[in-house]
Design brief:
About 25% of the residues lie in helices and about 15% in strands. By secondary structure, it is α+β, with helices and mostly antiparallel strands. It has 2 domains: about 50 residues, no CATH class; about 50 residues. Strands 1-2 form a two-stranded antiparallel sheet. Its cofactor is Zn(2+). InterPro entries: Peptidase_M20_dimer, Peptidase_M20A.
Length: about 140
């Protein structure tokens, strides 16, 4: 079931009971799943099947899900990749291009070794210039 799903599963918090040597009356866990190329409903079904299949008394509550986030990638010189990460882009309203870009490596973002080099920032300035120039050229063609 999970073998063909590439992504991340984080059970970030497990809580229940009153002491380590007492069986809890109830418990809960919270977490997040990030999967590239799957819909929230597909992931919800996988989780429910796995959890409820292991014990019919377990209840799964899924609060929300965000599906694949389309972004624009029509500017030469920028690396493009599909990843199982989150972004605020779905919250951007309006009819405009949506680029996801920033300094450094996305593979290091929010990790224990997250860092930026001065050269990453300098390169990002050039990248932002290219994005702005491209956006201005596109708007002048309208």
């Amino acid at each position: 079931m999970w073998l063909n799903v590439v992504g991340t599963l984080n059970i970030g918090k497990i809580e229940g009971g009153v002491a380590g040597n007492v069986i809890p009356a109830s418990a809960y866990a919270t977490g997040s799943v990030r999967v590239a190329g799957r819909t929230p409903d597909e992931i919800k079904d996988l989780i429910r099947t796995a959890v409820e299949g292991s014990d019919p008394n377990l209840i799964v509550e899924i609060r929300y899900g965000i599906g694949p986030v389309p972004t624009d990638y029509d500017i030469d010189g920028f690396e493009t990749v599909v990843l199982n990460y989150g972004t605020d882009i779905p919250r951007l309203k309006g009819n405009h291009k949506r680029y996801l870009y920033g300094p450094g490596s996305i593979l290091e973002a929010h990790s224990a070794h997250e860092h930026l080099r001065i050269s990453d920032l300098e390169q990002a300035v050039e990248g932002y210039k290219a994005l702005i120039i491209h956006a201005l050229e596109q708007s002048s063609e309208l």
